[in-house]
């Protein structure tokens, strides 16, 4: 049988290949099994297959698969050729060498060139760098975008404040009922009846005027809701930070990309509640026109009097109540005839449909930034809930690695704590038991502290320009009136889904994903977890949810860190948090922008209000703020729907 199969000859013809080539072969095989129509594989190379092997030719539009077979008398190609398909070999000749996207995608080097050491290749040429950043912070006393925003972010200035009484009343009107699970499987329904039961604090955004700041035509600005407006502004500021636009005035031309960069610049937009501000606001405006605004004050008072009479046992009201109604009616007439009369008249007008409604709910923030700045490259929007920004950054890195663009503008914007959405989202998070009811900021905003009792809603926007290192270096050679610098490097990203629960975190899966991410970093870049722990900082997802051993954000996150790093290394890793002073801005990750700024300044923000150690979390190196030497910034983000994302940043000087 051995002779018939030529077994000895086959065994001696075996060759040694780099493990990465086999990884690529397995990934390609998996892609073939998941392939849709039409599809034409670029791998395997037929000359490297054994005689008699069947392989897929392609899948046509009718989903018909066609196969071919290597002739039985075919001769295999010499071992000197690479197993990698032609597309990978072409990418290998480019100046950039990709970092792993999900841990396995790599640009392979040709065996003839003698570059079989992926560690050396990746460390010599890092694909992705950050050249521009911006942050639109929540603040009620000024504009969303102020010149000192990044300073405030690194200092850890408090952005959280009490919310207005009208917003509190709007939440109480929602008749919130929290469902609690008791020991034994019983369920308790807890209605919220007083202001002490609902959210009392939030991080609320100030104002933004696209026309005054960036020369955006008023008609175009009106097609965006607040979240899209601040995201577009963040993109503009990031482009200015990257030296791609001058931004010296509000002339639209000052915010346009030079023609030579337009085709190679794309946009990725992240938001947890895209267009919700516009949709909910318009629906509420319509309902108001059909209810309260449709009736004059006299009719409302008469209706209230009739309701009170129906509610009384003897169908009568007292003389005091009658006198009170008379005074109320008199006051209403005075108001209608006074300064507020015109406003009341406006409110009582019939509802008129906003002809720009469709544009405002189509999630066009990414396209609107492209239109304003001239970005003609890839353009998309993603929603990974609270992991949105980090996932968008990873998607942008994918696009850079695949050669779809030379630079990507990542933007994110959400307005969860605004007047329109706060009554709904604040009520929703309170109903889940996820948001705090504490009235004092110092008692509520305390990440990793034993006193933490729930998240605090926030709003804001960020912008980040990611660029291939080659593109950055070419731009640096050009004399420009818009100076810029390489701010940091993006070494690796990873995003996945735990397929677990709509709101809860899967502790085991997060730990396994973190270990996979760290293992891939060590494989590709030669950076071990000991080096990250000793010379890095960790930007946590921690939202200050209640201090429960089983389900708090901090509990799950720290458990994953201990599993991945071990107790000894974790004690060396400095832990940072921004949500303690920005609130939770939903899909906006101030952490990623802060990571770049920390690496640039070698200064870290403090974790606010950390006073009481949580014994369940164990010993942690919590940041107290101030100067701190670091080479790396590790970021973890999680979002509703079991979204998980990681990123590793390094200083611009990293080699």
TrEMBL record:
Which N-terminal residues, if any, form the signal peptide? none
Q: Molecular function (GO) terms listed?
A: 3-oxoacyl-[acyl-carrier-protein] synthase activity; hydroxymethylglutaryl-CoA synthase activity
Q: Which UniProt keywords apply?
A: Transferase
Supply the Gene3D superfamilies for this chain: 3.40.47.10
- Output the Gene Ontology cellular-component terms: mitochondrion
> Known EC number(s)?
2.3.1.41
Q: Which GO terms describe its biological process?
A: acetyl-CoA metabolic process; farnesyl diphosphate biosynthetic process, mevalonate pathway; fatty acid biosynthetic process
Q: Where is the Hydroxymethylglutaryl-coenzyme A synthase C-terminal domain?
A: 2-69
Q: Which InterPro entries match?
A: ACP_syn_III_N (IPR013751), Beta-ketoacyl_synthase (IPR000794), HMG_CoA_synt_C_dom (IPR013746), Thiolase-like (IPR016039)
Q: Where is the Beta-ketoacyl-[acyl-carrier-protein] synthase III N-terminal domain?
A: 383-418
Note down the stretches annotated as region Disordered.
1-20
Pfam family membership, one: ACP_syn_III
Task: Please note every region of biased composition (Basic and acidic residues).
Answer: 11-20
State the protein's name: beta-ketoacyl-[acyl-carrier-protein] synthase I
- Species for this entry: Ditylum brightwellii
- What high-level taxonomic lineage is stated for the organism? Eukaryota, Sar, Stramenopiles, Ochrophyta, Bacillariophyta
